[in-house]
Amino acid sequence: MNRSFFITGTDTEIGKTFVSQRLMKALVEKGFRVSGFKPIAAGCERLQSELQQNVWVNDDALALQQASNVPMRYVDVNPYSLRQPSSPHIAAQCDDITIDFARLNQALTTHKSLAEMTLIEGAGGWRVPLANQTYLSDWVQQQQIPVVLVVGIRLGCLNHAILTWEALKRDGVKVLGWIANCVDSEFKDIEENIAFLQQHISAPQLGEIPFIGSSREEKIPQWLDIEKLISQLD
Description:
Blueprint (H helix, E strand, L loop, with lengths): L2 E7 L6 H14 L4 E4 L2 E3 L2 E4 L5 E4 L1 H9 L6 H4 L2 E3 L5 H7 L6 H14 L2 E9 L3 E3 L2 E2 H8 L3 E7 L3 H15 L3 E8 L7 H11 L4 E5 L10 H4 L2 H8 L1
Parallel strand pairs: 1-7, 1-10, 2-7, 3-6, 10-11, 11-12
Antiparallel strand pairs: 4-5, 8-9
Helix pairs in contact: 1-2, 7-8
């Protein structure tokens, strides 16, 4: 049986992929067959495949594919590879593409057939638009996928986090928990901000990752409560 969950963030560039890779690594270390799924990626580059075909790929999607211990075709990891690094609704329009939930459902079915755990990484924040009246959050709601919220701890994060939390509750999705990811080395009020979020977000805190360099990266699993995440999925 596959257990899937969706990673959303309080904004763009707050470390969703970084956190997603580490969660996948921790789940792999627990013995699960884990796949990474990036339904929509905007900002792709051309790559010549082994079949001498030009394909468009995204660094975040490639990172999830590499973190997986289940072999997956790139097109199943990232069904929509949009070229322009813009909001998906703009990038899709530039590529003359209409994003179809049926295609996302088909890819998710593939993941569920191969993996025990599927981490699905969103694009930008929770209410990212895919078209004029369609949001990626609509698909998550339809599929009833539980959500993990990554909060980028920096100036302004309290507003973004509380607004996102309120939107998640209003949309009726299950929130497994939230992770504090310290993304600004100069930000001084980390403890005060995290304490505020602990008081105002009733979902469990699943981890706190300090601002780190590559030399300390091996310590990340001890900063994530993977057992709490698994228990929330059960």
